[in-house]
Amino acid sequence: MPLNIAIVGAGIGGLSAAAALRLAGHHVEVFEKSQFLSELGAALVVAPNGIRVLTGLGFSCENARSNPQSCFELRDGPTFDSVTSFDLTDAERRFDVPLYTMQRADLHGELHRIATMEVPGLPDIRLHLGRKVLTAKPAAGILHLEDGSSVEADLIIGADGVHSILKPLVLKGHPQPPLKTGLSAFRFQIPTESVRDDKDYVSLVAKKGHGPSILADISDENTAVHMVRYDCQNGEYQNFVGIHNTVLGDEDDLVGSMERQFAHFHPCLMRLVKKAPKITKWPLNIHEPITHWTRGKVFSLAMLLIRGQGANQAIEDAGALKILFEKIHSPEDVPSRMALFEKLRKLRVSRVQIMSSVRVGKEAVVLEELRNQADPPGSGNLIIYLPEFAAKSEYNVAYSDVPTNFTERLTHDFGYNIFEESIKFFEEHLLGPRARSPDCSQDHHSTPSEHAVVG
């Protein structure tokens, strides 16, 4: 039975959820407070765990001006020497899909296309711009908008970001405001053509292959300062994110502030900074894992994650919603499906959330916290990818509940197949006589191995 679903927020998470729930057969309306449909920010990494879902929703990486990446590596910032790397050339074999980097606006634009295109036999998504939600009544499933109108829905999904209207309603009595990390991010982009004359940078790219680099001072165990670089828009631009200790009042001289924060890094980086036509600075805030995600008929998907998995987890959420809300028989089944969703996602998202508080390579710092969010809590089961067994399919996917290093962290993040995990979870948790498994004759996957279970 089709549900009437209202989504608050038309960002990456909101449009992904809208596209997924429409494919599950539901009537979806999206309410966005701004008049213009755009996504702020520079570029981002869309990892295999996110691409897997996007592919299942009809997303085209070609339309998003993105190509597969061949490696992901950690390098010493002062010397550019390689510390460790993660080969992505076999990512399609290991994880079913590659890793991509893309401009946020390109990702958002393609999500808008698939969310609003006509799909034969399925209802259109109704997208409302300039419709600001003021509050909601979770028990009744009613949204109250700034223009005085009200909207009633069987399910309300809050995908309205850091300043979420719905999240405080879900957490009523247990507020969890964002936590300041003490870190900020410098962001800038440079046309690739403008750096071809920098021999050091050309050499760095030639050494590492095509993919993201994390540049960190390996000799300093205590610092969180590091730089992330990768290309976007089919290689036409080089994207940089410089994570640094927040300095109040440096907004008027961001170039000088970057020079001071990264003075001990390779001189090539400072030459690139001076080529940047524009530098922006964003404070990095996070949430601790929230206690619960639902109240009444309201989901809150608004979380803060950094270190490259924020958008990917929002996209994973959409994949879970698609599977868990297929073949629903009545609005009365919504609470049980919401409970399933929260149970499925909570530990996984909490682990990623905890890891977002430390840079790659520093996973041991949060090891105990990660163990508390393992499945089951306190465990630390690792299934590691072993190259010597690469020909055997049972070793082709690596997965780790409690990552302890760079490789295990990427394996934990990239190797997770939310479609397969959702199907498995649904079948293991039948809730009542009317609950049944989703129709797996539908194509949820980008590969034929539809029922292989990861984990």
From TrEMBL:
PANTHER family noted in UniProt: FAD-BINDING DOMAIN-CONTAINING PROTEIN (PTHR13789:SF314), MONOOXYGENASE (PTHR13789)
GO MF assignments: monooxygenase activity
Family to which the UniProt record says this protein belongs: Belongs to the paxM FAD-dependent monooxygenase family.
Matching InterPro entries: FAD-dep_Monooxygenase_BioMet, FAD/NAD-bd_sf
Annotated stretches, region: Disordered: 436-455
Name this polypeptide is given: FAD-binding domain-containing protein
Alphabetized SUPFAM superfamilies for the sequence: FAD-linked reductases, C-terminal domain, FAD/NAD(P)-binding domain
